[in-house]
Amino acid sequence: MPLEIVIVPCLSDNYAYLLHDAQTGATAVVDAPDAGPIELALGQHRWKLTDILITHHHHDHIGGVEPLRAAHGARVIGAAADAGRLPKLELAVEEGDTIIVGSETARVLDVSGHTMGHIAYFFPDSAAVFTGDSLMALGCGRLFEGDADTMWASLSKLATLPPQTQVYSGHEYTIANGRFAQSVEPDNPALQDRIERVAELRAQGKPTVPARIDEELATNPFLRARLPQVKSALGMENRPDSDVFAEIRQRKDRF
After folding, report:
1. Positive or negative, the Cα torsion across 91, 5, 108, 78?
2. Is 60 a catalytic residue?
3. Catalytic residue among 31, 34, 57, 61, which?
C-alpha cells in the first residue's frame, strides 16, 4: 500500500512532507523547516512521528529537527557526507543505501550541486521522490557549493526515474520558475499549458507540487539542456549538455 503523503507549508515558501504508513502506523517527515506547522499536521491526523529525513543542511530545511526529535524521539536520517553540518544523525546514509519507513523501502540518491552532500529519497512503491532543493518544479536549486557538471549529473540521475514518479521539492517557486522557463522556450506549448495550470492552483491557494518526472522533462529548462531545440535557442548547438545547463543556470541567476 502506498504511503499517504501530506504537504505541510512552512515558513514563507518551504514545504515539509509527512509520509504515513497505515499498515504500521509509522510516520516520517522529509525536512523540518519549522516544528510548529509539522506538529499541527501530526495532531490533526493523530500521527506520531517516527523518522525525520533530511535532504541537506540549510537552516530552512533543518530548523525544526531538534524540537521534533525531543517531542517524539524520532530517528534522524541524513547524508553521511554532510553529517558535520546536520543535526546529530541516528542513521547516516549515502548513495545506494536504503531506508525503511513503516513497510516501505526508499533508495537514497546523491543529488549534490545545490550543496555537496545533498540527498534525495526515492520511494518506488509510492512513486514519489523527495528532492529538497535539487530538482524543483520547473527549476533547480542555485549552485551554492557544487559546479554545473555535478548538478547536471544529479538532475540527469533524477530524470531517469520512472516517468510517473511524483517529484516533491522543497519550495513554492513554480510561478517564478515558469516565467524564466518561458524566456528559454517561449514556443513550448506544454510549458505554456503548465504555466496556466500553475497560476490557477496558486490563485486557489494550492501547492504546485508534486509534479511528475515526465512533466518536468517536457517543461523544465534545466532538464532539457540536452535537447537540440534548446541548444539551438541558446546558440549552443555543438556544446556539451553540461555547458548548456551551466548557461541556463547562469541566466536564471541573473533573471
Report:
1. negative
2. yes
3. 61
Active-site residue flag, 56: yes
Cα–Cα distance measured from residue 189 to residue 186, given in angstroms and rounded to the nearest whole number: 8
Q: Of 20, 57, 72, 171, which is the active-site residue?
A: 171
**The one catalytic residue among 51, 60, 82, 110:** 60
CA–CA distance, 20 with 30 (Å, rounded to integer): 11
How far lies 216's CA from each of 95, 116, 118, 220, in Å?
23, 23, 20, 5
Which one of the listed residues 31, 34, 110, 133 is annotated catalytic? 133
pLDDT digits (tens, 9 = 90+) for 71-94: 999 999 999 999 999 999 999 999
- For 99-133, how does the pLDDT look when each residue is reduced to its tens digit (9 = 90+)? 999 999 999 999 999 999 999 999 999 999 999 99
What's the rounded Cα separation, in Å, for the pair 168 and 235?
A: 32
Residue 1 is predicted with a pLDDT of 80
Contact 140, 222 (CB under 8 A): yes
Rounded to two decimals, the pTM is 0.97
3-state secondary structure of 231: helix
| C-alpha grid cell, residue 37 | 506547522
> Three-state SS for 195?
helix
User: Omega of the bond prior to 210 within 30 degrees of 0, cis?
Assistant: yes
Is 57 marked active-site? no
C-alpha cell at position 48: 506520531
Whether 58 is a known active-site residue: answer: yes
Q: Which of 20, 57, 58, 118 is catalytic?
A: 58
Q: Quick check: helix, strand or coil at residue 60?
A: helix
